[in-house]
Specification:
292 residues; globular; 10 helices
Length: 292
């Protein structure tokens, strides 16, 4: 048996096309969804992510109010900019690209964003609403994972989902989403304190690997027919590549694809879904502003 590879690029494209159609409808009513992506400094990975987000905004027909600030921008200056964007009714979504330079308190910055414009889904109000099952902006990567599971037509109710990682960005929120009634999984969350990881992974129908370490899950840790969602992005040296490195996930793709029923590749699996769901959230923020 060889696993079906989940084409995150294609599914993300479908989401983005659906968003673009709705953006066109809103524009006909005189409203153009607008996202402000704020980047402080020149972290190469962050610059690359922001470039991808800006490209997606253009393709969706949305307005791009991105701000690129120097590395030495003070915390006060950044908070003042967020205030300005919060108070601008033409800006529907605000995203501050993380990580921030060390002299800026990330928590302060996240909580400064108006929860109604927090399209990353990181504000404590949105996190709280997610926990109690109220309407909230869902964090983009976890939401994208749920969309992937729905797209492959998996019957998730009653299945055992195992999440490796407890970050605020992926591990915790995806565990909550998987346990919601519409997905209805029984969820186990594993982390660096977990003993007998292999024992647990072998029981899982769905494995979400978000540990941040290559080969956290190997072929002998996966039961036949499991669905494996790999969130990891790890650079490993590869002299055959022009860049000198290649990207791999947190799982051993080659081993696992012989046992799993579905698996996401890295790159081209979960990654494209993150930007697609950001576009989805920005559209939703614009629609919410009309209702308001």
């Amino acid at each position: 048996m060889s696993a079906q590879v989940i084409d995150g690029k294609q599914i993300a494209l479908q989401v983005r096309q659906g968003v673009a159609e709705k953006v066109a409808d809103l524009k006909a009513k005189g409203i153009t969804p607008c996202l402000a992506v704020v980047l402080v400094g020149e972290n190469p990975a962050s610059v690359s992510y922001v470039t991808g987000k800006r490209k997606a905004l253009a393709e969706a027909g949305m307005k791009d109010r991105s701000e690129v600030l120097p590395e030495n921008t003070s915390e006060e200056e950044l908070l003042a900019l967020i205030d300005k964007l919060n108070n601008d009714p033409s800006v529907h979504g605000i995203l501050v690209q993380l990580p921030l330079p060390k002299h800026i308190d990330e928590d302060k910055v996240i909580t400064k964003i108006d929860p109604k414009k927090d399209v990353d889904g990181f504000h404590p109000v949105n996190v709280g609403n997610l926990v109690i099952g109220k309407k909230a902006f869902l964090p983009c990567t976890p939401h994208g994972i749920i969309v992937l599971l729905k797209e492959i037509g998996m019957e998730t109710s009653g299945k055992h989902a195992l999440v490796i990682g407890r970050s605020n960005i992926v591990g915790k929120p995806v565990s909550l989403l998987l346990s919601r009634k519409d997905i209805n999984c029984t969820v186990t969350m594993c982390h660096t304190g977990t003993k007998n990881l292999k024992e647990l992974t072998l029981q899982a129908d769905i494995i979400v690997a978000a540990s941040g370490h290559p080969h956290t899950v190997t072929g002998d840790m996966v039961k036949d027919g499991a669905v494996v969602i790999d969130v990891g992005v790890n650079r490993i040296p590869d002299s055959t590549k022009k860049s000198g490195f290649r990207l791999i996930g947190d799982t051993d793709f080659e081993q696992i694809k012989e046992k799993a029923s579905f698996i996401t590749p890295v790159p081209g699996g979960v990654g494209p879904m993150t930007i697609a769901m950001l576009m989805y959230n920005t559209l939703e923020a614009a629609e919410n502003s009309i209702e308001k």
